Amino acid sequence: MENEISKIFGIRAIIEAINAGKTISKVYLQKGLSGHLFSELNTIIKREAIATSYVPVEKLDRLSKYSNHQGVVAQISPIEFVELDDLITSTLNKTTTPLFLLLDRISDVRNFGAIIRTAECTGVDGIIIPNHGNAPISADTIKTSAGAAFKVPICKVDHIKDAIFQFQSAEIQLVAATEKTDDLIYDIDLKVPTAIIMGSEDRGIHPSILKLVNYKAKLPLLGEIESLNVSVACGAFLYEVTRQRLKS
Prior knowledge:
Radius of gyration: 19 Å
CATH class of the largest domain: Alpha Beta
Helix content: 25-40%
Largest sheet: 6 strands, parallel
CATH superfamily of the largest domain: SPOUT methyltransferase, trefoil knot domain
Low-confidence stretches: 1-5
CATH architecture of the largest domain: 3-Layer(aba) Sandwich
Strand content: 15-25%
Strand order of the largest sheet: 7-6-5-9-8-10
Order of helices and strands: EHEHEHEHEHEHEHEEHEH
C-alpha cells in the first residue's frame, strides 16, 4: 500500500509542487478535463516532461481516497533522479569497466522493483528509464526493490535513444536483450564498458533501438514456453556480466 505522502491532488496544489521543485513520477488526469487552470497545469507538465496518464474519474477517486482531487492526482517520487551526463562522468572517473542498465518501457512496478534489486546486487552503476511509458517509482517499487532504489542512481531521459547516443560517445558498448537474434549472451565479451538494454514485458525492445546497438543477445530456452519474465531475464544477463568479470 502506498504511503499517503507519496500522492498529492488538486490542480493548484500540483502546479505549486512542480514549481517548488518536487520530483513528480506521474500525473493522473481525468479524461475530458478542461479549463484555464488545467491548461496551465498541462503546459507545465509538458515543459517538465512529466509522465501522464488519462484515467476515468473512478481511478482518481480511489487514488485520492475520494477527496476533492479536481480531476488530477500526482505521484511524488520518493527518490531524486540524477542527470545522465553527471552519472556517466562520475562513473568513468571511478571505474574503467562501468555497467549500466537501460529499461525500455518496463510497465509493471514489481518487475521494475525486482530489476532494481538485482541491479544493485550485481554492481550496476546506474539505471536509465524513459520519461514516458515506464512504471513509476512508487512505494510498491521501493518495497519490491528491498530499498535498492535508494542505492542505485536512476536517470530519466526523453527517449532511450538519447542515452544510447551518449553511451556510444563514451565508448560504452550496447547489448540488447532480444529473441530476434541467434547470438547468446554467453558469446559476448562483457568485461568491457557495457550497457544492457531490456525491453517491455509485452513488446520487447523497440525496433528503432535494436538498429543502434552493438550486439543483440538472448538466453537459451530449453522448454516449451517461449519467453522469460523480464526481471528474471535481466537477472540472467547481469549475472553473466558478473561471472565474466569475476573470472577475469
